[in-house]
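Honest question from a wet-lab person: if I give you the sequences of every part of a complex, can you actually get the arrangement of the whole thing, not just the pieces? Trying it with mine:
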Amino acid sequence: MPRDAEKNSLMFDATVLVIEDDAAIRRAVKRVAVLDAARVIEAEYARDGIDLAAAVGPDLIILDLGLPDAEGLDVCREIRRWSAAPVIVLTARHGDRDKVRLLDAGADDYITKPFSAEELGARLRVQLRRAIARAYGAEAGTERIGHLSIDLPGRTVRRHDREPDELVKLTRTEWDLLVTLVANAGRTMTHAALREKVWDGASKDPRHDIRVHVANLRRKVERDAMTPELIITESGVGYRFERPQ
Amino acid sequence: MTSRALWPSGRAWLTWFAVLGAVHLTLLTVRDAEGRQAHIALIFLLVVLGGSASGARGLGTALGVSGFLLINYYYQEPFGTLGVAKSIDWVVLVGFIATAVVATHLVQVARDAANRANARAAEVLALTEEAKRAAALEEADQLKDTLLASVSHDLRTPLASIRALADEMPASPTAQREIVAQVERLERMIRGILDFSRIKSGPTEPPELNVVEDLIGAALRQADGILRGRVVRAEIHDDGVLLAQFRFGDTLRALTNLIENAARHTPVQSPIEVRAHSNGALVEISVVDCGPGLPAGEEERVFLPFYRPAGAPPDGGNAGLGLAIARRIVEQQGGTLTYRARDHGGSAFTLTLPQAVQAATLD
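Yes, you can. This is the full assembly:
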């Protein structure tokens, strides 16, 4: 689906690296990526992909998990050792444990095959936006996200979908959780990763249950906690904060 | 002990007492007053040893005591009484009984050791067999995992290519749409079959504490495509955060199957409801529709794998595994999945899961 009107809508000369051995999928990814990136480079093998990543320093990497010459997980780990560029993994595996392993290996997101161009485009733009935020540095002020505004220094959240605006009362845990999710917007955070960030990982307290705190947080910040728009559940894996487009 | 085991033992007693009797009768003919009791005692001792070697400790001891009495009564003066005339005779008698007891004991110890060794050998053999079987099972399991993973990969990769190629032919939007629809249909079927074989082989992880609202929200999101343009209501009747013990990924599949099933078999304009409430130690989640409901007699059959409603087109775009998978998933976690016809038409599929409680959350 051509989206010329949206081309380079991100105002950023991004380079996207596609590591994929299947020519048809490589072309499909390229077709989607050129809509938002200045340059798309391709590799068919893991070895070339890693070399290109090291030489060019792309802003985003799209990595196929089933490359002929290397295990995708290892490629992901290898790249993560020296690159902070977001990595989107293309995988034909649908198991939850595979997904958790991928995220733990440093992937930022995954798309399961077969996927649509729209799906890939949406994920790609989310990750590019993260890359831009990193490149230009996020402002530590008040941030407007959909119907919410989050004031980091003031540690307050307001909802603008109610009349008049409403100050949201969050507990310390809920605030930490929200800030962690927003800081990693677009990235799926595993339950373990969230625990680690919110309670420094060491806690074995059964009351430290991410799921219950997320449920409480959703009631306070989502328009409808049952059909959340901001804090999305990734089945069996964790949660992802989605910025409204 | 069974009679079968008793029989050989009984036969040993009969045999050895017969031998003792025969020996005794033979020896009686050569008995003399010269007093060769020591020789006679030696011969009896052989009988005692033979008996204890073939029978149990009891047989050896009984033969020993009988031998003692026979020697004393028939072979030592005065004959025909249990009295003993010469003190040397006492030595022979005591020597006889002591040797008989010690020999019986030694034979028994040796036999016990042999029995233990045999038992241990049998045990080791059994363990080895078991280990072999476990290893074979594990190997089969691994093979199945590998097979499923590669089937999943090998089927989906070409699908992904076909789908990507479809996007390249905007010249024919109808053909493009059709290809994409067929790819999606194949993908649904592959997922159904993979889910079914995975779930059939049993759960791999224990159920966890999860939030019911999260489950319903994720299921509605997953069924988003098929629910487009429909009125869907979701309600949880609970004041707090309703918690249950379940495997999120599997249970999400089960609930999504129920919702998709309702959407597939009811008119687009009829609403679908998802309701959850606590019922004692259980959480009940129902998917309720206002469609035609199931024909009488089909209420249980719908949960069979590859079920298709009578008269339904064979081309429903799914493998007929949805409800079978859902029930299996729920039952593996100590829950149930049942169908009930609603009073004024429509179906209600209700799944139950063990409710979980949690102390107030900590901040």
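Two things worth pointing out. The two ends of chain B are 66 Å apart (CA to CA). Chain B has nine helices and seven strands.
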